User: Which sequence fits this backbone?
C-alpha cells in the first residue's frame, strides 16, 4: 500500500502523487479489512449535501463538533489529519493520525475539489466524514492503480489548525487575512480614496475597538487605525467581511496604545467589514494637469499634518506629492515651472519631516534631491547641513553652512550652526591628536628601546647561557662524528712553502 498525496492539478483527471512507505491506520491490523465505522454510515440519513448545486456530489457527516465558531476560508493555510477509504471501507491512504499532518491552501486547486469544499465547512478541531463522488474526487479516469475510474471515495478529516493568508510584502506572516464573506469587484481602495469600514478589534479576548469609521486611505492613523490594519484594507473588496491578524510590529508596536488599553508588543485580531470605498485615478493614468492638482492637494495636506506635529502622516503626504510629480515627460513651460516648484517644496518639507523624526540619512538624501533642483536654495543647504551635523559629518556641515552664509550673510540660524560645526571639528581634531599622538609616542618609545637592546646584545655571552644547561649532556663534535663513523677533516694551513691558498680560513697556529 502506498501513501498518496491528495493534491491534484486544475484538471480533475490529472492527479499527482507521492509514494511512501507501507502504512496502516492506527488501531487497524489489516488495511484490507473494512473500517467498521465507515461501513456503518447510512449516507441517506443525517448526511448534509454541501455542494452549491445540491446534487449529492459531496456528503458530510460530523463525528466530533469543533471548538470555535469560525471556519477556514479561501486563501487560508489549513493543517489536517485524514484517512482515505474506498466506498467499501478499506483504507487506501492516511496521515497516521496527527503524527504526520497534511497542510494545504484552501481554494487554490492544490487538492481535490471535495477537500477545498469540505474543509471550508469545518470548525477548529472538528472531525467529519465526507463521501466524494467522482466529479469532486478523481474523475472518470481515477488514479490507477490505487483509485479506479469513476470511483466514490470517503475521507475522514480532522482540522487541527489554520492560519490566514499572508498579505505582507515580505511574507513574514505579520499580517494575515481570512475571508469570512467574499466581497464584490476586483480592486480594493487606494491612497487618496475614501474608505468606510466597521471594525471590531480584539486583544487577549477583549474587544478594544468597535466602531464604524470613514477616512482617507493613507491617513488611517489619524483615525486611530493600526498601520497594519490600514495596509490590510487595500486587499479588501466592497462588502467583504474578513478576519485580520496583526503582529505587534505592524500594530501599535513597542509603544502600545494606552488610550485603548493595548500594551507594548501586543498582537491584535480584527473583524472587518468593508462597507464601501471610492478609488482615485492611479497616478500613471493621470494627465499632467491632474498630477499637478493632486500633488498640490497632497502637499497642503502634508503641511496641515506637519503643523499638528503628526510628522509620519506629513511625511506620507509629501511622498505622495513627489510620486505625482517625479516624472519625465514633455510639458508646457508653465507646467514645468509649477512642477519644479511643487517638487522642490515637497522635497524640502520631506527633509524637515525626516529631521523631526530623527532619520538624518533620509533627510540628507531628500535635501540633496532638493538642491539638484535649486543648488543655492537656503533651506536646502540649511537642512543638508543639519543632517550632516547630526550624522557627524562636521566638515560637510561646515561647507553647507558656509555656502549658505556666502549668499546670505544675515542668516543667524546658519551662523549659529556654523559655530557648532566649527566647535565639533575642533573637538574631533583634539581627540584625534590625543589618540594618534599617543599612538605615535608609543611607537617611538618602542623603536628606541629596540635600538638600545640591539646595541648592547652580546651574542657570545648568550651562547654561554645555553652551554651551561642545555649542552651539558650533549656529545662533543668529535664524539658525535665517531658515533656516526665519520672522521674529522684534516686541517689545512696557509703555507708559503707549498704555494697553496688557505681553504679553511681561521687563525694561524704559527
Assistant:
Amino acid at each position: 500500500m502506498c501513501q498518496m498525496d491528495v493534491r491534484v492539478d486544475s484538471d480533475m483527471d490529472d492527479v499527482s502523487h507521492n509514494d511512501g512507505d507501507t502504512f496502516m491506520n492506527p488501531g487497524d491490523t489489516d488495511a484490507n479489512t473494512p473500517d467498521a465505522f465507515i461501513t456503518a454510515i447510512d449516507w441517506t440519513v443525517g448526511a448534509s449535501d454541501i455542494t452549491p448545486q445540491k446534487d449529492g456530489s459531496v456528503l458530510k457527516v460530523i463525528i466530533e463538533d469543533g471548538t470555535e465558531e469560525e471556519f477556514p476560508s479561501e486563501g487560508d493555510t489549513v493543517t489536517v489529519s485524514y484517512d482515505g477509504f474506498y466506498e467499501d471501507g478499506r483504507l487506501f491512504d492516511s496521515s497516521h493520525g496527527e503524527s504526520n499532518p497534511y497542510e494545504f491552501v484552501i481554494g487554490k486547486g492544490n487538492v481535490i475539489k471535495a477537500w477545498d469544499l469540505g474543509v471550508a465547512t469545518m470548525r477548529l478541531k472538528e472531525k467529519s466524514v465526507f463521501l466524494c463522488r467522482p466529479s469532486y474526487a478523481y474523475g472518470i479516469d481515477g488514479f490507477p492503480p490505487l483509485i479506479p475510474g469513476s470511483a466514490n471515495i470517503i475521507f475522514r478529516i480532522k482540522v487541527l489548525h489554520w492560519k490566514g493568508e499572508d498579505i505582507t510584502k515580505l511574507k513574514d506572516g505579520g499580517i494575515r487575512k481570512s475571508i469570512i464573506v467574499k466581497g464584490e469587484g476586483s480592486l480594493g481602495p487606494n491612497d487618496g480614496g475614501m474608505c468606510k469600514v466597521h471594525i471590531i478589534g480584539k486583544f487577549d479576548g477583549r474587544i478594544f475597538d468597535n466602531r464604524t469609521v470613514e477616512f482617507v486611505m493613507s491617513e488611517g492613523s489619524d483615525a486611530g487605525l493600526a498601520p497594519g490594519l490600514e495596509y490590510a484594507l487595500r486587499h479588501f473588496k466592497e462588502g467583504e467581511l474578513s478576519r485580520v491578524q496583526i503582529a505587534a510590529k505592524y500594530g501599535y508596536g513597542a509603544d502600545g496604545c494606552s488610550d485603548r488599553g493595548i500594551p507594548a508588543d501586543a498582537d491584535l485580531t480584527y473583524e472587518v467589514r468593508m462597507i464601501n470605498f471610492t478609488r482615485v485615478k492611479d497616478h500613471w493614468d493621470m494627465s499632467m494637469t491632474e498630477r499637478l492638482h493632486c500633488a498640490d492637494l497632497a502637499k497642503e495636506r502634508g503641511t496641515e499634518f506637519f503643523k499638528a506635529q503628526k510628522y509620519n502622516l506629513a511625511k506620507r503626504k509629501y511622498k505622495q506629492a513627489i510620486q505625482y510629480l517625479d516624472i519625465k515627460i514633455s510639458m508646457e513651460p508653465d507646467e514645468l515651472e509649477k512642477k519644479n516648484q511643487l517638487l522642490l517644496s515637497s522635497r524640502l518639507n520631506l527633509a524637515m519631516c525626516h529631521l523631526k523624526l530623527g532619520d538624518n540619512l533620509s533627510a540628507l538624501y531628500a535635501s540633496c534631491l532638493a538642491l539638484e533642483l535649486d543648488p543655492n536654495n537656503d533651506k536646502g543647504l540649511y537642512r543638508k547641513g543639519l543632517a550632516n551635523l547630526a550624522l557627524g559629518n562636521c566638515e560637510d556641515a561646515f561647507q553647507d553652512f558656509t555656502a549658505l552664509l556666502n549668499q546670505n550673510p544675515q542668516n543667524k540660524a546658519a551662523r549659529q550652526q556654523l559655530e557648532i560645526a566649527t566647535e565639533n571639528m575642533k573637538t574631533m581634531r583634539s581627540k584625534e591628536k590625543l589618540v594618534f599622538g599617543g599612538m605615535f609616542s608609543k611607537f617611538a618609545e618602542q623603536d628606541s628601546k629596540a635600538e638600545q637592546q640591539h646595541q648592547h646584545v652580546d651574542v657570545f655571552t648568550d651562547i654561554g647561557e645555553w652551554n651551561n644547561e642545555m649542552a651539558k649532556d650533549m656529545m662533543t663534535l668529535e664524539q658525535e662524528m665517531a658515533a656516526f663513523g665519520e672522521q674529522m677533516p684534516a686541517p689545512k694551513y696557509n703555507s708559503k712553502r707549498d704555494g697553496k691558498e688557505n681553504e679553511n680560513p681561521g687563525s694561524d697556529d704559527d
Remarks:
- Residues 1-29, 457-475, 491-510 have pLDDT under 50 and may be disordered.
